[in-house]
């Protein structure tokens, strides 16, 4: 029965998607100016599309279509809303209105998933459990509870049977992305296939509660005893692939500025802390919370940030860290030549790229930014324009850089919402300069020496033996083998030289034999002499060395 049910569900889902996209005229947006525009008319002939169409603005129509298609498409829209490098502003601004709120699933399902995962009853695992969800989203919902020692916790439970829904919808998205690339040449600039693949990886990672819990634990260790950021504790005894139990925190959403002011929180200080947290995560810890939108950030009564939802985290390679820091500093100093050189050195663009052409392109994009007051200069805007320009020269934006850009835009938005006078450069430049000094200066040398000294001491007794073995091999094995090869080569060259000499002499003898009047000996016949010369010449030519 399942064999027939699944294809039927897939066809039914495809029909619904087609109906929604047609109603909101998404088909006209995509195919209207392409060679496949005739498909629009055929699509309207399908029975499920026999109704009046929505007439709103295009951004609003796209948002409403995604909302009607359900939570997986809503999450895709939310992911796209951060890609200002790909979307026009009118569409991006509408997508940022998407809310990942879904109807809660049944209390019985939550209890069953928790008990199956923890292998014990709710009563054995928790002293209290509130069946009414605190929040419900597309991937999971959250319940309040307490442990038997009185600790208040929250339980995050993955939605039942959500993975097949994700796989089905993402599969359809991939097909639509392929059709989009085939039908509309201009769409290739948007990389729709890559966007969907990146989205698939992100959303599947969010399904794994063990992964999210380990992310939270790492971030908590990074900011242990910090006056900047607090991360709730994970209770591993009550956590598995589908259930995560964390310490419950009490704070004010960072977007509720009026409440923060009432609590005596200094918003200017709070906005500067947000920038410091970002750069600390990216450059000091190399592990950053990549989903820092207002819904995931709270402020504790003591003025510290508190983060939740650790499904999406980002990291950079050491080279990417250094090149980004140098890019920011070079941009601040308007050294566009250095920005261009860094792009080529890091191979973000092909090595054959002409540095002067890239410099000119970057200058034309970035220089107008400096006409604005310093406090209005956006790091996120700088990164976005930098990546857009570099893409013209063959740059393929890596996922970790996209996550970084998204996070930076979120941090900037939060910071300027708290303090519209926020000057990111004032906080960022000293931080980056100190980081670069520690990374490449004398401090870095001392730090690396201290870190590696125990290992060097441990291996020190082996060094004399290793050095002797290496020198012995170098003196005997390698040189002896090279000498044998050189001797063989010398013999081959000598043999080839002798053979060439014999061939030359043989040819000369044959030529000499047929020169008339050169031989006038009475004791030998000229014909016999010619024959002897030819035979001798032939012998020399054919002689083997």
TrEMBL record:
Annotated SUPFAM superfamilies: Protein kinase-like (PK-like) (SSF56112)
ABC1 atypical kinase-like domain mapped to chain residues: 97-342
Protein name: ABC1 atypical kinase-like domain-containing protein
Sections of the chain in a coiled coil: none
Pfam families to which the protein is assigned, alphabetical: ABC1 (PF03109)
GO molecular function terms attached to this record: ATP binding; kinase activity
Any one of the GO BP annotations: ubiquinone biosynthetic process
The keyword Coiled coil is annotated on this UniProt entry: no
Family the entry assigns: Belongs to the protein kinase superfamily. ADCK protein kinase family.
Pathway: Cofactor biosynthesis; ubiquinone biosynthesis [regulation]
Organism: Thiosulfativibrio zosterae
Gene: ubiB
Keywords (A to Z) from UniProt: ATP-binding, Cell inner membrane, Cell membrane, Kinase, Membrane, Nucleotide-binding, Transferase, Transmembrane, Transmembrane helix, Ubiquinone biosynthesis
UniProt key word S-adenosyl-L-methionine: no
């Amino acid at each position: 029965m399942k064999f027939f049910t699944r294809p039927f569900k897939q066809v039914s889902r495809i029909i619904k998607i087609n109906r929604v996209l047609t109603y909101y005229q998404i088909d006209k947006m995509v195919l209207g100016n392409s060679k496949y525009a005739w498909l629009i008319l055929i699509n309207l002939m399908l029975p499920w599309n026999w109704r009046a169409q929505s007439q709103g603005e295009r951004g609003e129509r796209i948002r409403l279509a995604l909302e009607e298609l359900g939570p997986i498409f809503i999450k895709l829209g939310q992911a796209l809303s951060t890609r200002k490098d790909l979307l026009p502003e009118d569409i991006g601004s509408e997508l940022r209105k998407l809310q990942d709120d879904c109807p809660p699933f049944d209390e019985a399902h939550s209890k069953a998933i928790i008990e199956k995962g923890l292998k014990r009853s709710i009563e054995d695992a928790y002293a209290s459990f509130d069946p009414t969800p605190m929040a419900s989203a597309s991937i999971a919902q959250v319940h309040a509870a307490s442990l038997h020692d009185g600790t208040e916790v929250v339980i995050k439970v993955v939605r039942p049977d959500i993975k097949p829904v994700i796989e089905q919808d993402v599969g359809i998205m991939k097909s639509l992305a392929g059709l989009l690339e085939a039908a509309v040449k201009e769409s290739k600039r948007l990389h729709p296939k890559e966007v969907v693949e990146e989205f698939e990886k992100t959303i599947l990672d969010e399904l794994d509660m063990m992964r999210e819990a380990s992310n939270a634990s790492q971030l908590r260790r990074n900011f242990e005893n910090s006056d900047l950021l607090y991360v709730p504790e994970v209770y591993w005894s009550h956590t598995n692939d589908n259930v995560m139990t964390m310490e419950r925190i009490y704070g004010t959403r960072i977007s509720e500025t009026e409440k923060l002011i009432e609590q005596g929180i200094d918003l200017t200080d709070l906005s500067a802390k947000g920038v410091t947290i970002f750069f600390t995560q990216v450059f000091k810890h190399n592990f950053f919370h990549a989903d820092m939108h207002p819904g995931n950030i709270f402020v504790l009564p003591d003025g510290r940030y508190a983060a939740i939802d650790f499904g999406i985290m980002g990291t950079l390679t050491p080279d990417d860290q250094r090149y980004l820091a140098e890019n920011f500093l070079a941009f601040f100093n308007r050294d566009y030549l250095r920005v261009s050189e860094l792009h080529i050195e890091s191979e973000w663009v092909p090595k054959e790229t002409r540095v002067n052409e890239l410099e000119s392109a970057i200058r034309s994009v970035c220089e107008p930014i400096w006409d604005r007051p310093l406090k209005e200069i956006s790091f996120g805007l700088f990164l976005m324009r930098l990546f857009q320009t570099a893409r013209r020269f063959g740059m393929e934006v890596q996922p970790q850089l996209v996550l970084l850009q998204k996070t930076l835009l979120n941090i900037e938005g939060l910071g300027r919402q708290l303090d519209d006078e926020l000057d990111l450069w004032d906080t960022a430049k000293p931080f980056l300069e100190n980081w670069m000094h520690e990374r490449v200066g004398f401090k870095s040398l001392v730090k690396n020496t201290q870190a590696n000294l125990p290992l060097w001491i441990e291996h020190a007794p082996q060094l004399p033996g290793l050095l002797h073995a290496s020198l012995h091999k170098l003196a005997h094995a390698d040189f002896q083998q090279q000498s044998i090869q050189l001797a063989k080569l010398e013999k081959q060259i000598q043999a080839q030289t002798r053979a060439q000499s014999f061939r030359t002499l043989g040819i000369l003898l044959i030529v000499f034999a047929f020169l008339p009047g050169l031989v006038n000996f009475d004791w030998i016949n000229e014909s016999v002499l010619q024959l002897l010369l030819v035979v001798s010449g032939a012998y020399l030519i054919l002689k083997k060395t």
